[in-house]
Amino acid sequence: MNQPALTTSARTILRIVTGFLFAAHGWQKFNEFTIAGTQAAFAQMGVPAANVAAPVIATLELIGGVALIVGVLTRVFAALLAANMLGALFLVHAPAGIFAATGGYELVLILAAAAVALAFVGAGKVSVDKALFGRSGSKLSVLA
Predict the structure, then answer these.
(1) How far, rounded to the nearest angstrom, does the alpha carbon of residue 95 sit from its chain's CA centroid?
(2) Residues 18, 114: contact at Cβ < 8 Å?
(3) How confident is the model at residue 1 (pLDDT cuts 50, 70, 90)?
(4) What is the 3-state secondary structure (H, E, C) of 8-64?
(5) For residue 2, is pLDDT > 80?
(6) What local confidence, expressed as pLDDT, does residue 12 receive?
(7) Cα torsion at 77, 53, 61, 22 (round to 10°)?
(8) CA 88 to CA 97: how far, in whole Å?
(9) What is the DSSP letter of 87?
(10) From the CB of residue 42, how many other CB atoms can be counted at a distance below 10 Å?
(11) pLDDT band (50, 70, 90) for residue 118
(12) Can you tell me whether residue 93 is helix, strand or coil?
């Protein structure tokens, strides 16, 4: 069994699927709910500074999700997206229990965990990060 190949595959799958889900949620906030609707929903849920938070979160989820898919600045975007999900968990979803069907935190928790994992391990070999920052001795190799 080729462990490096499995690790590369696992990172790539995790990055693409997690990125897709974040991008889909960002897109939904812009196009289905609209920013005004997202601001109203955030305010109703008690999110602080909902008028500012809604467009920032929608943009982070959309752009950050696409960045994860292609593997660019993966550690940075993954850390920001993890913080986003932990905020959602504690500000909105925790009181509703585990299950998403009742407004619970199962989705935001697994997205947070996936984003934290990507922040720790990086994008992997099949990524823009590796192409840009993966040279040995590079001062930015921590981004690869």
Answers:
(1) 22
(2) yes
(3) low
(4) HHHHHHHHHHHHHHHHHHHHHHHHCCCHHHHHHHHHHHCCCCHHHHHHHHHHHHHHH
(5) no
(6) 97
(7) 120
(8) 13
(9) H
(10) 22
(11) very high
(12) helix
